[in-house]
Amino acid sequence: MKKINAGIVGGTSLLAGLLIEILYTHPYVDLIYIDSEHHPNEPIYKFHRFLKCDIKNKKFDNYSKEFVHKNLDVIFIAKPHRISMKYVKDLYNEKIKIIDLSGDFRIKNVKEYEKWYNTKHIIPDLIKKSVYGLSEVYTEKIKKANLIANPGCYPTGILLALYPLLKNRIIDSKSIFIVSYSGVSGAGKNPVPGKNLFIDAFNNIIAYKVTAHQHIPEIEEYLSEFAENRVMINFVPHITSVEDGIFNTIFLKPEKSLAEKEFFKFYEECYKNCKFIKINRERIPEIKDVVDTNFCNISLKMDIRTGNLIVFSVIDNRIKGGVGQAVQNMNLMFDLPEDTGLM
Amino acid sequence: MKKINAGIVGGTSLLAGLLIEILYTHPYVDLIYIDSEHHPNEPIYKFHRFLKCDIKNKKFDNYSKEFVHKNLDVIFIAKPHRISMKYVKDLYNEKIKIIDLSGDFRIKNVKEYEKWYNTKHIIPDLIKKSVYGLSEVYTEKIKKANLIANPGCYPTGILLALYPLLKNRIIDSKSIFIVSYSGVSGAGKNPVPGKNLFIDAFNNIIAYKVTAHQHIPEIEEYLSEFAENRVMINFVPHITSVEDGIFNTIFLKPEKSLAEKEFFKFYEECYKNCKFIKINRERIPEIKDVVDTNFCNISLKMDIRTGNLIVFSVIDNRIKGGVGQAVQNMNLMFDLPEDTGLM
Amino acid sequence: MKKINAGIVGGTSLLAGLLIEILYTHPYVDLIYIDSEHHPNEPIYKFHRFLKCDIKNKKFDNYSKEFVHKNLDVIFIAKPHRISMKYVKDLYNEKIKIIDLSGDFRIKNVKEYEKWYNTKHIIPDLIKKSVYGLSEVYTEKIKKANLIANPGCYPTGILLALYPLLKNRIIDSKSIFIVSYSGVSGAGKNPVPGKNLFIDAFNNIIAYKVTAHQHIPEIEEYLSEFAENRVMINFVPHITSVEDGIFNTIFLKPEKSLAEKEFFKFYEECYKNCKFIKINRERIPEIKDVVDTNFCNISLKMDIRTGNLIVFSVIDNRIKGGVGQAVQNMNLMFDLPEDTGLM
Amino acid sequence: MKKINAGIVGGTSLLAGLLIEILYTHPYVDLIYIDSEHHPNEPIYKFHRFLKCDIKNKKFDNYSKEFVHKNLDVIFIAKPHRISMKYVKDLYNEKIKIIDLSGDFRIKNVKEYEKWYNTKHIIPDLIKKSVYGLSEVYTEKIKKANLIANPGCYPTGILLALYPLLKNRIIDSKSIFIVSYSGVSGAGKNPVPGKNLFIDAFNNIIAYKVTAHQHIPEIEEYLSEFAENRVMINFVPHITSVEDGIFNTIFLKPEKSLAEKEFFKFYEECYKNCKFIKINRERIPEIKDVVDTNFCNISLKMDIRTGNLIVFSVIDNRIKGGVGQAVQNMNLMFDLPEDTGLM
Hints:
Chain A has helices spanning 14-25, 65-71, 84-91, 110-117, 124-129, 139-144, 153-167, 198-201, 215-227, 260-270, 319-333; strands at residues 4-9, 29-34, 74-77, 97-100, 131-132, 147-149, 171-182, 205-207, 234-240, 246-254, 277-279, 296-303, 308-315. By secondary structure, chain A is an alpha/beta fold.
């Protein structure tokens, strides 16, 4: 097979580093372009000290729309929210596949986006053309998409945990309570005061952006789509003293009185063809089950005393919640087995 | 002032070690008895390597009812659940103060105790005579008690977080969703497979005893007492890669529509005379705020989108959730300022 | 190519788990036998919770000499020191390749072995027939061996760091000072009081087995072989609050006055064909450079003030210092590229 | 007793925060001045989130020489190297006691200072008037000093470990090999790329400033003074995944052939009146033994195979290696028991 020519815009970020690692070992990809706005021509290894792939002599490219359009089949945009859309605007056409890792195209309702991200969207028309890259749910749309809005880390684990229940209308969509804990890598590699310095995060637990996290409208939009009904969530994200991984603990009120094993069946049926989703009947997953993988592990408990259901999901925030899912989406778009280069 | 003669039954446990440290530096206590059932006459420092107080030449005593009754004013029982009650049975009389750190006397409903602890209670009559040692709530009763059932770690942080709301009937007592994360010291110092080995707990997040934790009936009993109404909770405890501390995240439905600052006022009013409770208006507390102290820090957020209230509380599980509160209760029982020896 | 039929004796250990993971994904291996003495017929996943390979339905075999001899091309022995030799004695013949992960065949001088391991060696004749599996140094011997004594974790990183210097006689072999720090996984997964419980090792640094570590005679034996001269080392191992990896810091007195870059050349020349050794001129390696890989990274600094040389080496104790090197040796024995299944 | 009026120049640093905590609870100190050059009039708690003392309403002062001279008995300078001397120059007179936490006055040889700190010293005359604040060694001089150069963290633990040996001329002063590991708090609270971000330091080991650390000339100067002879050291500092504490592992060649217990006697004799030094015969200290205390614990092992001596010392880098020792020095200067406010 002819290899896919791939590139990355914004090569210095933490996620870009991991994406480089994955794409270098992907058997059907040639990664021929990695740019940096602020550090062109500097050696890549200086920004990604721990990469295992051989990039000793590689340097960051200067951004070049011409090069991208002329040579690439797919471009990953790894720029921050609000900036990413500028590159998408510049690069979008019908011939190249764009996978945007930022939040700029995830929220279809432009007003919501503008409120939560506190900025004007510069290319709202493209939001409609983009496809939300939740690989297991929007598989068919992803295959045909030109522009993927790759999901956020919290949304990925939460949406996958709730999809089978909301689709089947078996929980009360007004009563969803989510507590999420993330490893510190979720805060990126630029210093964030009080959050990702060792002395702040080590041996500590911190709740942050309570009622104000920009993933809230993203989660609600797709939950509402699943339920065909307006869904609101109660959500508190935390950061704690681990490197990677997200642990989601979700309380729900069932609409139907079902046994625990009946709930499991909905999940198993819903995800039966999904290589990256494991439904755990035996025990509740831990983040160590999924760290360094593209898996989302899900389990649940029926609380027979209260009649409520508790669902658990774990992912690696950087992989299934970031670049792993992005590559999974690329695989879908280029008709490759979805796990190519990801096992 | 004449010093209090104090002793400890069960000196080898993790909590006993910390209790030794606190009592040694308490200005009005002589700690003259520390026994061990399995290691009498062995040096204490062998079991508590990191104690800072000078116990170099101290050895564990043999258990002696006679010595305790003849010489002590107060005895702390630091034995495991189910075993503790045997010592309380043997030692109880009207002259000595007993502070029991186990769960054996916390649940007033014997049947509930026997169900959750899976054992027969050997001295149910004493349960009624015991006082639940939640220092800030049952202060007056504690002062007069002979037998204190010292609260569990999760119950302490959760009950203090919910007391002002339930007492004032301003939340729906049917809709309480609690996610708690504890440091690994909560699992004690004996190996528990899959939980407190370094390779299991480091860099990991684990949910455990979901719907089955023995602190559930303890929490519900006192919440019901606060609310004068049967309260049930939804509760998931987790363990993560930190040493000490508990972080509680609690979702609630207000019964009255109040502004955030109104809720704060209830807390400030309720705890205005409590030295060990801090109500944080400026920011949500982190476990580093309270680790190594007897404080319980509380904050809250009104989610104006959903109309729900989110309450946060943090404690050090070993101190306010264990031996710190036990010493606070001793201070109350002996008419000392409640923070003596605890600052 | 016909696949290699491989097996593991002693499947429950921490190293065995990682070996299972590697052999399952090795393109030329069929792992058809994994036994357990104490847990035959029990599901493997119960002992290796975090394995990513699919072993859901696999159970531990009963030990069977007949099966091993009839069906396997290679058997890995993952039993503890002192026990391993019993299995080697039982299984050794000219037709099967044995790779022993224990210390039982590493020390050629039986008396030294018996002194440091405090046991009688039951099959000293086989020690002479075994080959020490330091892949980069004894490559040719390994290719022809039937019995490999796979190196210990500390010896691997230290021997690779010193080989080019001692072979070329450019340092004083009487003046070698080594400080090593290991992650806690080096202590295995059975509880070791004071060492691998979370509350002991987290946030702590511990020196252990000072002047008494059983890797000392192993290191000295091969250093002496390199130098063709009796070499003694000064060595202190420590354990600290990281999962995996060993960091070696070695002080040496050069016999010749050479510039830093001259020393580097000896290393680069010596290891020029070695895929798993990286000589770092730019910066001193960190354990994060090698964790989860089979690499040994080496760097050095000439202290021009004192005239002494400081050499640094890092490995993953479980991989290059354990099962990774074992598989590298298997590759050599079966004429495969040495990195097959290890990248 | 009349209280000591104390102040701090440079109140925002990590060390300043801990100094505030200690001075607030010191029974004979009134801390009446804490300035900040860049953040005057801002609330202190914003820069020291985890302080347990009550500083809720305190704000940083503007630097005022007049106030300091008029009101204070002692001033602690907590400014960075190279800047600290400007404040000492401005504030020095015969009436106020100055305790400088920086490296600016520790090295008596101005040329050495200027070489290692890469700056011109602006007030070399004061270097001679200053006293090096190694409390246990220079006790008498400290009592009479007006200007204390408070020792660095590495020097404190290393000098205390070597003092009894060099003073008694029982080791070869040409053969000293030191490996030190520090917790991440040693890197302060401002982001240092590659060093004190969580994602860099967590689960990692890093050697840094090899042959170039500015503590080398400080250590050598005082070792030379102890030995009355020019001493040079081989020294490698590392940082690892713990919060606080320094672990020093030191190889030495004895000049006399003495048994282990004889070496212990030198230490016990030398430090017999020192409250903050513990000589451990039973076991090698761990950093958990001293973290959060002003203790320096020391132990040793004779390697009878090699004839070399291995000495271990541990301190809390922030306390005995920083502000704890500074307060100990203040106690000496004001004729208080040396442990006042430090237990």
